[in-house]
């Protein structure tokens, strides 16, 4: 049987499985590049530890969200969204709403993809057969499937989106779609139903990791928005972050009631 | 003319500091153009998220009052050399803050000077771990 015939049959089988709702149950029948057993992931690189967004990348993210326009870190926003950003105060040098830009984090909501990966938190990457799990210090979790499956045809919108990965040597390439429009690309700039994110994640030294990200969304950007963020191995490990623990923001005003004595 | 140019540059720098990064909230509620220095006694140190808080008892000509001073998130502060026990109740410290714009007794911590002279900074765009920060050290990697 020819290769093209096999591909056609596989595609038809996958469509049938998707149509019958069997995709989840059939996961382990499709060992992908990462394989479906512990032995098959032995060769993967060591990304253990907690990875904190570097100071330099925090600076870049700061410039990306605030300008000034023309700075190479500023995303190529379409005029509609550039105007929105200005109105929202994220790019007009602090002259926005008195309480600050309205962001997900202000309401203790997750950033979602791709904004969560450029937040000043630590991240850990867990490798298990068929998937990579990314955990952010703020509690957000990404499940990146590396078992060979495809994106569902119509994923339920979520903050983390639907992520499919594959390994190219020691680089994890991740394709993410299916974010809710509540998710953020960056502070105050929300995803659309068509936001598409591609990441290349790799270590650059024993204590640095890098993510090259491309965000494709013609509604938001005049051309694909590309950026690089780096992460340092954090000697303190992961720290708990529960946003509602002591959230003193009340509609843009800080509650200054001291704790009980 | 030269002075005007300098003012424009200064305004831009200040403006950049006012603009939001990604933290729990932006610094829009604080006067980032102004630093004030408070010396007082630590009433509480809340090692909490989304922000850590120093509650400082300050006595001055207006009487004895409690100030609420906001720091970064626990993880950010930890990477800057802070620890849960670095400020003790009853300890006398000096704090530089950006005061709240609405005039209430609160602010965003810029730095804390401990009784022994050590300086603790808070994380933010462009901040670097203080060279003389106390605690477990300021190195960010363990490789």
Key structural traits:
heterodimer, A: alpha+beta, 15% helix, 28% strand, globular, B: 143 residues, alpha+beta, OB fold (Dihydrolipoamide Acetyltransferase, E2P), 5-stranded mixed beta barrel, 2 helices, 16% helix, disordered C terminus
What does this molecule look like?
The complex is a heterodimer of chains A (261) and B (143). With 261 residues, chain A is of the alpha+beta class. Chain A has three helices and 13 strands; from the N terminus they run αβααββββββββββββ. Chain A has one domain. Chain A has a nine-stranded mixed β-barrel. The N terminus of chain A is likely disordered. Chain B is α+β, with helices and mostly antiparallel strands. Chain B has one domain: OB fold (Dihydrolipoamide Acetyltransferase, E2P), CATH 2.40.50.140. Chain B has two helices and six strands. Chain B has a five-stranded mixed β-barrel with strand order 1-2-3-5-4. In chain B, a hairpin with a 5-residue loop joins strand 5 and strand 6. The longest helix of chain B is centred in the N-terminal third of the chain and has 17 residues. At the A-B interface, helix 2 and strand 13 of A face helix 1, strand 1, strand 3 and helix 2 of B.
Chain-wise SSE layout:
The complex is a heterodimer of chains A (261) and B (143).
Chain A: H1 3-19, E1 51-53, H2 55-66, H3 79-88, E2 122-128, E3 131-136, E4 141-145, E5 162-168, E6 171-177, E7 184-186, E8 189-190, E9 196-205, E10 208-216, E11 225-233, E12 249-250, E13 253-254
Parallel strand pairs in A: 4-5
Antiparallel strand pairs in A: 1-2, 1-11, 2-3, 3-4, 5-6, 6-9, 7-8, 9-10, 10-11, 12-13
Chain B: H1 2-18, E1 36-46, E2 53-60, E3 63-70, H2 74-79, E4 92-99, E5 106-113, E6 119-121
Parallel strand pairs in B: 3-5
Antiparallel strand pairs in B: 1-2, 1-4, 2-3, 4-5, 5-6
Concise account of the structure shown:
Chain A has helices at 3-19, 55-66, 79-88; strands at residues 51-53, 122-128, 131-136, 141-145, 162-168, 171-177, 184-186, 189-190, 196-205, 208-216, 225-233, 249-250, 253-254.
């Amino acid at each position: 049987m020819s290769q093209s015939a096999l591909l056609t049959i596989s595609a038809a089988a996958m469509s049938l499985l998707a149509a019958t709702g069997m995709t989840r149950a059939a996961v382990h029948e499709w060992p992908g590049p990462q394989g479906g057993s512990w032995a098959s992931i032995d060769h993967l690189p060591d990304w253990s530890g907690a990875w904190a967004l570097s100071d330099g990348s925090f600076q870049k993210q700061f410039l990306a969200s605030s300008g000034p326009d023309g700075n190479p870190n500023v995303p190529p926003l379409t005029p509609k969204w550039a105007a929105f950003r200005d109105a929202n105060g994220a790019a007009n040098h602090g002259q926005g709403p008195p309480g600050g830009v309205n962001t997900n984090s202000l309401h203790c909501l997750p950033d979602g993809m791709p904004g969560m990966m450029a937040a000043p938190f630590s991240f850990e990457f867990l490798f298990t057969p068929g998937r990579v799990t990314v955990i952010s210090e703020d509690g957000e979790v990404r499940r990146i499937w590396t078992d060979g499956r495809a994106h569902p045809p119509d994923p339920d919108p979520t903050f983390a989106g639907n992520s499919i990965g594959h390994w190219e040597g020691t680089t994890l390439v991740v394709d993410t779609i299916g974010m809710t429009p509540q998710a953020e690309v960056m502070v105050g700039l929300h995803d659309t139903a068509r936001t598409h994110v591609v990441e290349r994640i790799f270590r650059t030294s024993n204590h640095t990791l890098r993510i090259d990200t491309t965000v494709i969304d013609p509604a938001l950007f005049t051309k694909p928005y590309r950026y690089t963020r780096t992460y340092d191995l954090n000697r303190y490990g992961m720290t708990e972050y529960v946003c509602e623990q002591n959230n003193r923001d009340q509609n843009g005003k800080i509650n200054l009631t001291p704790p009980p004595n | 003319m030269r002075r005007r140019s300098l003012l424009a540059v200064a305004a831009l720098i200040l403006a950049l500091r006012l603009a939001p990064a990604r933290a729990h909230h932006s610094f829009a509620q604080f006067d980032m153009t102004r630093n004030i220095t408070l010396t007082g006694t630590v009433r509480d140190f809340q090692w909490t998220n989304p922000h850590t808080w120093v509650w400082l008892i300050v006595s001055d000509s207006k009487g004895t009052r409690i100030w609420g001073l906001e720091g970064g998130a626990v993880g950010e502060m930890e990477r800057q050399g802070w620890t849960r026990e670095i400020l003790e109740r009853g300890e006398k410290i000096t704090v530089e803050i950006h005061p709240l714009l609405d005039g209430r007794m609160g602010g965003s911590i810029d730095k804390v000077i401990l009784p022994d002279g050590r300086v603790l900074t808070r994380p933010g765009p462009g901040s670097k771990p203080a060279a003389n920060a106390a605690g477990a050290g300021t190195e960010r990697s363990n490789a």
